[in-house]
Every structure is written in C-alpha cells, then in structure tokens.
Design brief:
DUF4200 domain-containing protein, DUF4200, rod-shaped, CFAP_domain-containing, about 0% strand, mainly alpha, coiled coil
C-alpha cells in the first residue's frame, strides 16, 4: 500500500487523465439517460408514419365514395336529361304539328274567303244585270201594253195616216198598204221580243235563285269550318296551357340538377386542388421520384388545349352572330337544345377526366408514401447500426507490483431501461415485485 501511494504521488499526470476519463464517461451516461433513446425515436416516427398512412387510406376511401356518388349522380342526371330531352322533342313535335294544322286551316279559310268574295262579286254583277233586264222588261211591257191590240194599232195608224193624208192631201194607195204591212210586222216582232224577254227573265231569276242558294250553303259551310277551327285552336291552347306548368317543373328540375352538378364539380375541384398541392409537396421533396409525372404533364397539355379552344371559340363567336340571327324559331330551339346537350356532355366528360386525374394523383401520392417509408426505414436501420456500435474506452491503470501493466476495459452504452434498473435501489425493486405479486393475486 505504501508503495502504491508512492507511485500515485509519483505519477500525478496519469491520475488526472484517469479522472478526466471517468468524468467524461459519467457525463456520457447521464446524457444517455436524459435524452430519449433511438428506439423511442424510431417508434415515434413509425407511429407518425402509421397515422399518416391511416389518414391517407381514410381520405382515399372517402374520395372513392365521393367519386362513386358523383358517378351515380352523373348517371341519374344523364337518365333524367335524356327523359327531359325526349319530352321536349315530343312537345316540340306536338307544337309543330299544331302549327302546321293551324296554318293549313288558315290557308284554307283564306282560300274560301277569296272564293266567297269572288262569288259575291259575281252575284252583285248578276243582280245588276237582273235589274237592267227588269228595267228593259218593264220598258218592253210598257211598249207591249201600248201596242197590245194590233187592230187598235191599225186603226190608230189608219187614223194617223188619214190625218196625215188630209193634212198633206197627197199620197198613193200603194204607199198606204206598205205602211200598214210594216206596222203589222212590227207588232209581230214586238210579240216575239216580249216572249223572248219573258224567257230570259225566268232564266235569270232561276239562276239568281240558284246563286243565292249556293251562297247561303257556302256561308253555312264557312261558318261551320270557322267554328271547327276555333274549337281546334281552343283545344290546342288548353293543351299548351296544361303542358306549360309541366315544362316549367321540368325546367326547374333541370336547373336543380345543373346546380347539384355544379356543386359536385366545385367539391371535386377543391379535392383536386388539395391533392395537387400534396402531390407538389411530395414531388418537391424528392424530385428524383417520377410517380404520376405522365398524368401531371397530360393534365397540363389538356388545360393548355382547352384554353386555346376557348380563345378560338370566343374569336369565332363574334363573326357567327349575324349569320345565326337569320335562322327560324324552330332551328333556334333545336340548336339551343343541341347546344345544351353538348355543354352538359362536355361538363360530364370534364368531371370524369378530373376524377381520373385525382385518382392517378392519389395513386402517385401513395407510391410516394411507400417510397418515403422505405427510405426512412433504411435511414433508421443505418442510424441504429451506428448507435449499436460499442464505444471502447481504454482506462489505463497501474497494476499492483513492481512491473505494472495496463488493462483495457470495454464499456458499452446500456439502454436507458437497463440503466434505470441498475440505478434502482433494492428497496424500490422489492416494492415493485410486491406490487406485481399483488396484481397477479388480484387477477
């Protein structure tokens, strides 16, 4: 012992070195006890990774449910839109047939009115001719009444001739005979003319009666046709009034469906923005990984093509306004229905493309997460291998005896639980064992 104390006094530098090494060792052990272990950090990282994967799976399931609901709503909307389109076509066909019938009835009524006007003008002309004939007949009857008795006419003519002969006191008997013969001939001619006039008046009266009867019959037929056309128009008006609320309901239902489709499109757009932001973060964190790159580039190309198409359509729309304004109402209605169907089909195709794009991005994000998990596991394994390496600390001590030799002590870092157990007092260990025995007995 005295020799050892003497050696210690002789080597103060070795003693200070050993004390420094022991202090460093104690400091390292304290740091190992205070800081969390690598296993705890690995477990925490695994827990966080498990939570992220679980949340991603839940979001994927919810997104799949949303997409399925959107598909079902799209199918229902397509079916309802087809039904509405068919009903609209039937209604337009009904309106077109009614318009054709009304046009045909109006044309026929106009033609009948023209024929009626022609017949009325002809009847007026015949009435005027009849009045003229009646005047002529009255004049001829007057003349006939004046010369109804040819003998009196002869006596009058003879008296006139005698008076003229007395006045003139000249003339021959041959001339007197000639005048009498002429008077007789004129009387016979007047009788024949009277008979002919009576026949003509009878014929004209019969023709006028026939024309009056035809005119009355035509007026009755025209009145019946006008009544029938008015009834048809009233029925068509009633049908239109009955179909109008149904069309309004269909229009309201169509607007509601379009609003719901717009809401679903907005929701899908929000989901797409969130997924795109997540994908950008994943791609920015690891640019070497190329998951979903093709879908990303294809979406960019499609967006650029859509922007170019919208610009060209807007430029061509201004020039086509003047030519489109010259079309008929039926063409405009058919074009509006076709444009609405094309716009709805375009919206549905855009929604389907967005859903497919979001699904592709979600698959890419899932692949990113799997790669991140593998990378983190590899890094954790490397770190664990580095931490499990033993730290050899050589403690040089002088042995007993005259020669003296050095012993290398291997000191390994013990896990935190083992160190805590080593630090426990025997009383604490006995208390823990008693508590465990009481729990087992209670169980």
């Amino acid at each position: 012992m005295q020799q050892k104390e003497a050696e210690n006094e002789a080597n103060p530098a070795d003693l200070s070195l050993r004390t420094n090494k022991l202090r460093n060792l104690i400091l390292l052990q304290r740091l190992g006890l205070e800081l969390p272990s690598d296993d705890a950090r690995i477990l925490d990282l695994r827990r966080q990774l498990h939570e992220v994967t679980a949340e991603l799976d839940f979001k994927k399931v919810s997104y799949a449910q949303v997409i399925e609901k959107a598909r079902q709503q799209d199918k229902a909307l397509q079916q309802q839109q087809q039904q509405l389109q068919q009903q609209l076509l039937r209604f337009e066909k009904f309106i077109a047939t009614n318009t054709e019938k009304t046009l045909w009835a109006n044309q026929r009524a106009a033609a009948e009115k023209e024929t009626l006007k022609k017949k009325e003008t002809e009847l007026k002309r015949l009435n005027r001719e009849l009045q003229l004939q009646e005047l002529l007949l009255q004049q001829q009857q007057q003349q006939l009444a004046d010369c109804s008795n040819p003998q009196e006419l002869l006596f009058a003519a003879a008296a006139a001739q005698q008076s003229s002969s007395l006045l003139q006191q000249s003339g021959s008997p041959q001339q007197q005979n000639v005048t009498l013969m002429e008077l007789l001939k004129r009387a016979f001619l007047l009788q024949q003319l009277q008979q002919q006039l009576r026949k003509k008046t009878r014929k004209s009266q019969s023709a006028a009666d026939e024309l009056r009867a035809e005119l009355q019959a035509h007026r009755r037929a025209l009145e019946a046709k006008t009544v029938e056309t008015n009834n048809r128009l009233a029925r068509c008006q009633q049908q239109l009034e009955a179909a109008w609320p149904q069309q309004q309901k269909q229009q309201e239902s169509r607007e509601q469906q379009l609003q719901s489709l717009a809401r679903t499109a907005a929701q899908i757009a929000k989901v797409l923005l969130a997924v795109e932001s997540m994908y950008r973060r994943c791609a920015a964190s690891r640019p070497a990984l190329q998951h979903g790159r093709a879908a990303w580039l294809q979406q960019k190309r499609e967006a650029a093509a859509e922007m170019e198409g919208e610009g060209s359509a807007a430029a061509a729309g201004g020039g086509s306004k003047s030519s489109s304004s010259k079309g008929s109402s039926s063409k405009s209605s058919s074009s509006s229905s076709s444009s609405s169907s094309s716009s709805s089909s375009g919206e549905e195709s855009a929604l389907q493309r967005k859903c497919r794009y979001t699904a592709a991005l979600l698959d890419a994000i899932f692949n990113f997460i799997l790669d991140f998990k593998e990378i983190s596991e590899i890094l954790i394994k490397k770190k664990k291998n580095k931490s499990n390496k033993t730290l050899n600390v050589a403690l040089e001590e002088q042995t007993e005896g005259q020669r003296g030799f050095r012993v290398k002590d291997k000191i390994e870092f013990v896990p935190t639980k083992a160190l805590a157990r080593a630090k426990e007092t025997p009383k604490a260990a006995a208390a823990k064992s008693a508590a465990a025995s009481t729990r087992s007995s209670a169980g």
